[in-house]
Amino acid sequence: MKTNWRPGTLIYPLPAVLVSCGDCPENYNVLTVAWVGTICSDPAMCYISVRPSRHSHALIMKTGEFVINLTTENLARATDWCGVRSGKDVNKFEAMHLTPEPAAVVKAPVIAQSPLSIECRVKEIKHLGSHDMFIAEVVNVMADEQYINSKTGKFEMENAGLIAYSHGNYYTLGKKIGKFGWSVEKKKKKK
After folding, report:
1. Under a CB-based contact definition with an 8 Å cutoff, are residues 75 and 83 in contact?
2. pLDDT interval class at 120 (50, 70, 90)
3. Would 24 be classed as within a structural domain?
4. How far is Cα 121 from Cα 83, in angstroms, rounded to an integer?
5. Contacts with 178 (C-beta within 8 Å, 6 or more apart), sequence order
C-alpha cells in the first residue's frame, strides 16, 4: 500500500557531478551539483540547476559556459567538500588537489581526475524558485582514454567507479543488469 508523503524532490539516485566554471585560472571554481541531466540527444543538451546564492552561479551567468565532470569513488571526498564550501572563501581546486586543465572548446576548465568531462554552453536560463536551471548545449566531451573500449569505441562507465547521490548520501554504482533493448532482444539460435 502506498501512502501520501511529503512533497519534494524524490527522483533519485542522481549523478553527483563536479561542475567547473570560470574563464581564466584566477577565477576558476568548482561546485557540486546533483540537479543535473540530459534533456535532448540531437542536438545534445543537458541542464544543471544552481542556487543564485552560489558563487559559481555568477560565474556561469557571466561566461555562459561550464563543464560537467563525472565523479568517482576516488573523487567522493572532493565531491562532498566542494558542495559545502564556497569558492568565495577558498580555492577549491587547490584545497582538494583537483587539477584544472584546458577544455577543448569552452574557457571553463575540465577536471583532470574526472573520467568524463562534458563541455557546455548555456542556451537558456529558467528561474524556477530556489534554483536557476541552466539549459545548455553540449559542445564537446572529453573522456579518459583508459575507459574507452579499443574495439567498440564505447566509454565503459562501469569501469570508472562512478558515484551517485540519493537523499543526502553518496553511493557507488552497482553491477550491470542489462542493456537497452535486452528485454525484447531475440535470442541467438545455437548452431
Report:
1. no
2. very high
3. yes
4. 22
5. none
Region 115-122: mean pLDDT is 98
Neighbouring residues of 122: CB distance < 8 A, sequence distance ≥ 6: 60, 64, 65, 66, 134, 135, 136
C-alpha cell at 66: 561550464
Count of domains observed in the chain: 1
Q: Is 79 exposed, middle or buried (0-12, 13-18, 19+ CB in 10 A)?
A: buried
- Residue 189 inside a domain? The answer is no
Full residue range of the structural domain in which residue 168 is found: 14-172
Q: For the whole model, what pTM was predicted?
A: 0.91
Domain assignment present for 27? yes
Residue 22 sits in a domain whose CATH number is: 2.30.110.10
Model pLDDT for residues 162-172, shown as the tens digit of each residue = 999 988 899 99
User: Is the per-residue pLDDT at 101 higher than 90?
Assistant: yes
> Cα–Cα distance between 85 and 92 in angstroms, integer?
8
Burial tier of 68 (Cβ tally within 10 Å: 0-12, 13-18, 19+):
buried
